[in-house]
Design brief:
This protein has a 5-stranded parallel β-sheet with strand order 2-1-3-4-5, sandwiched between helices. The protein folds into 3 domains: 15-88, Winged helix-like DNA-binding domain superfamily/Winged helix DNA-binding domain (Arc Repressor Mutant, subunit A, Orthogonal Bundle); 102-136; 139-290, Glucose-6-phosphate isomerase like protein, domain 1 (Rossmann fold, 3-Layer(aba) Sandwich). By secondary structure, it is α/β, with parallel strands linked by helices. The longest helix has 22 residues, at 115-136. It has helices spanning 15-24, 31-42, 44-49, 52-59, 63-72, 78-88, 94-101, 115-136, 139-150, 164-176, 191-196, 214-225, 263-280, 284-290; strands at residues 154-159, 180-183, 203-207, 229-234, 247-250, 255-256, 259-260. The protein starts with 14 loop residues before the first helix and ends with a helix. It is built from 14 helices and 7 strands. Helices cover 53% and strands 10% of the residues. Strand 6 and strand 7 form a beta hairpin.
C-alpha cells in the first residue's frame, strides 16, 4: 500500500483545535474516517494511552485506517496525533489515565459468562464514564442549558431506543418540578405531527448517542427548520443533532460490548432537573405534596 502523504497545512496543535476541525469537517470524511473520528472523540483517554493496534481493534477498523486518519488531519502519523491526546491529559487527569491503562474486569480477560464478572464490568464502565463526564462537562454550557429550559413554555423530549429510558425519566422529572413536558413517542409513526405541535415558545430536547436514532435526528431537523429552540444531549461534536441545537451537553458513555452505560447521562439529567427546579423555585417534594 502506498504511503499517504499528510495534507498541506499545519495540523491541530491541541485537543480543542482538533475537536473544532473535526466538527467543521463533519460530513466530509469518508465513512471509515468518520468512524475513527467518532471513536477518538468519544474515548480521548484511551487514545492517549493505548497502542495503534489496540485502538484499531476497539474502533473496529484496520490499523492503516487510523494512520490514514492522522495524515488526513495533517499529522506525520499516528504517534504525532496521539501526542495531542496525551497533552490533554497533563496535570490532574494523569491518575485517571494511569487507571485506564489497566483494563480491569471489563478487559479482554473477563469471563462474561459469569454474572459476577458482568456486574463488575458494568460497574467499572460506569466509574470510568463518571470520571470522564466530571472532567469534561462544560459548566458554562450547562448554565445556558438550564436557562434555555427555564425560559421556554413547554419541553418536548425526543429520545428513542437506547435513550428512551432517559427521555421518559426527564419528562417525569420536569413534570414534577412544574415544567410542562411531553414525550415525542412516535406512536402511530406520527413523529412529524408531534414535532409540529412544538409551539414558538416551546423547546425540543433531543437525546441521542453514537448510533444516532434516525427518528430523533429527523425530529430535531424538523424543529430547527420550523425555527424552534433545540437543546441536545449527545456524545460529541460530530453528532448530527449538535449543529441544530442552541445548547449542547456532551456525554461520553463507556461501553461494554454492545451495551452503553447510561449512568453519566442519568447524572446529567438529574442535574438538569434539580437545577431547573431550584431556578423555578419548586421541588419534587413540594409538587408531590400539592397533588
Amino acid at each position: 500500500m502506498t504511503d499517504i502523504p499528510p495534507r498541506p497545512g499545519p495540523a491541530a496543535s491541541d485537543y480543542e483545535a482538533l475537536r473544532t476541525e473535526l466538527a467543521a469537517r463533519s460530513g466530509t470524511l469518508s465513512r471509515r474516517l468518520a468512524q475513527v473520528a467518532q471513536f477518538f472523540l468519544n474515548h480521548p483517554e484511551e487514545v492517549a494511552i493505548h497502542t495503534l493496534v489496540r485502538l484499531a481493534d476497539q474502533a473496529q477498523v484496520p490499523p492503516a485506517t487510523i494512520t490514514r486518519f492522522a495524515k488526513e488531519l495533517g499529522f506525520a502519523g499516528f504517534a504525532e496525533l496521539q501526542d495531542v491526546f496525551r497533552q490533554r491529559l497533563l496535570g490532574p487527569r494523569l491518575p485517571y489515565a494511569a487507571r485506564l491503562a489497566d483494563p480491569g474486569p471489563q478487559g479482554a480477560g473477563a469471563d462474561l459468562d459469569q454474572p459476577g464478572q458482568v456486574f463488575a464490568s458494568f460497574v467499572e464502565a460506569a466509574v470510568q464514564s463518571l470520571f470522564r463526564i466530571e472532567a469534561a462537562l462544560d459548566r458554562t454550557e450547562l448554565d445556558g442549558f438550564i436557562e434555555g429550559l427555564a425560559g421556554c413554555e413547554a419541553v418536548h423530549v425526543a429520545a428513542a431506543r437506547g435513550a428512551f429510558g432517559l427521555g421518559a425519566y426527564m419528562v417525569y422529572g420536569l413534570s414534577n418540578i412544574g415544567k410542562r413536558a411531553h414525550l415525542i413517542d412516535n406512536i402511530g409513526a406520527m413523529r412529524a405531527e408531534q414535532a409540529f405541535a412544538i409551539g414558538p415558545s416551546d423547546a425540543l430536547l433531543a437525546m441521542t448517542f453514537d448510533d444516532y436514532t434516525p427518528e430523533t435526528v429527523e425530529i430535531a431537523r424538523l424543529a430547527a427548520r420550523a425555527g424552534r429552540r433545540v437543546l441536545a444531549i449527545t456524545d460529541n461534536e460530530l453528532s448530527p443533532v449538535a449543529p441544530l441545537a442552541a445548547r449542547v451537553l456532551y456525554v461520553n458513555e463507556a461501553r461494554l460490548g454492545h451495551f452503553r452505560s447510561q449512568v453519566p447521562a442519568m447524572v446529567v439529567c438529574q442535574t438538569i432537573i434539580v437545577s431547573l427546579g431550584r431556578r423555578l423555585g419548586t421541588s419534587w417534594k413540594e409538587n408531590i405534596q400539592k397533588r
